[in-house]
Design goal:
The protein has one helix and no strands. With 43 residues, it is mainly alpha-helical.
């Protein structure tokens, strides 16, 4: 009876975890690019 609800929650968890991983990876890329950009400016 509650199988559909459980599947909906699982898909939501999967989506949120995927979004979190994407955000973390994107943040690291931005920090890396900003760091290298600052090095170029200082030198």
């Amino acid at each position: 009876m509650h199988v559909e609800e459980r599947e909906r929650v699982d898909s939501l968890d999967l989506r949120s975890s995927y979004l979190h991983g994407f955000t973390v990876t994107f943040g690291r890329l931005i920090k890396f690019h900003i760091g290298s950009y600052m090095k170029v400016i200082h030198h």
